[in-house]
Amino acid sequence: MTELFFAAVNLSIQAGWLVLAIVVLRFLLRRVPRWIFLLLWGMVGLRLVLPFSVESAWSLIPSAETISPSVLYMDVPQIRTGLPIVNQTINPMLEETLTPTVGASVNPMQVLAAVLSWLWVAELAGMLLYLGVSWGKLSRRLRTAVRLQDCVYQSEQVRSPFVFGFLHPRIILPFSLSERDRPFVIAHEKSHIQRGDPWIKMAAFLLLSVYWFHPLIWLAYFLLCRDMELACDERVIRGLDREGRAGYSQALLSCSAVHRGNPVCPVAFGEFSVRKRVKAVLRYRKPLLWVTALAVVAVALTAVCFLTTPQIRPTMEWAQNLSGDDIVSAELVVMPQATDKQYRVFDENEFAGIAALINGSHGRYVAEPENLAGGSIQFHITTSDGVEHTVSNMGNTYLYIDGDTFSAGYGWLSS
To answer: Pick from 91, 151, 157: which is nearest to 320 by CA?
Structure first.
């Protein structure tokens, strides 16, 4: 259970970076068709579903695994966000509060992880229960709905139009809906069905139920729903003249006054920021081809940068997962330094601290490092499998691990 929870946390963190990128793109690409943003939100869903990712040198995700399952067994628990300033802020607090006491029968980190895992499952079950109960209540209310035409029904039990159902979706209209507004509402809801929006939004709610603990996933769900409505508006008004768009806007205003969101109604006509939608309808212009092409390129670049994870060298993976129990001997060599301070052999009770220090290793691989004239600090470590390892700080510029060089940043190396 705990490992599954950690996997969900790590996936949500990766998806969070993608959500932030999409928020920026929504601001920069305000004039592109809204279906472009639905593609981007689809990538968020893909990131949350796939338990694996492709490694890439182009990835902008700071860390492929922020919380390793091995943190439960570390002598000094640490996380690896890929952001040194965050690591240096959080890890000392983890060390102070969650480091297991020698000889203690309880590991604080394991207890905390177990509690959080069960809390995660409880909230997930609660959201699914709420969804099921709400769906059942609405289904009972719609038993008296009267068929108007094809898949369109009217009901006195609802106050705003929406689509209900999946295998055979129905458009539900309130009896109070005027005949003037009815054609626009039906066209909008049919567009939702044709685009598959009921299934998309329900899938999004299920993902939200799993990743309820991450605020950026809530933001993504809210913005997905908004972009879904705007994209559907654009699809309908493409075939309307100026008078038709005015009528469509009036229908939006009429329905918005009585709408109240419900997650089991995947798409509802008067939903989300009606004022913004009315402005978008009245100002609609057919997007230029080059603008759409630019947006598609932006989507492709976003996928390359945020659906992939950084490449991890085997040497870095070893350093980040080293345990004090793995160390048989450890020596330190400092150059240049006074003769009596150049060399030191560590005691066994210091191995845990050395492992914790090396666990903080990070940085991008440098294939051709510059030649440096500065000093160096070198750990020579022999592990229980008989292998000798070297971990060096080269002039507070490079981190050197068994022949591989990484750009780890001056701030972390100098500390």
So the answer is: 91
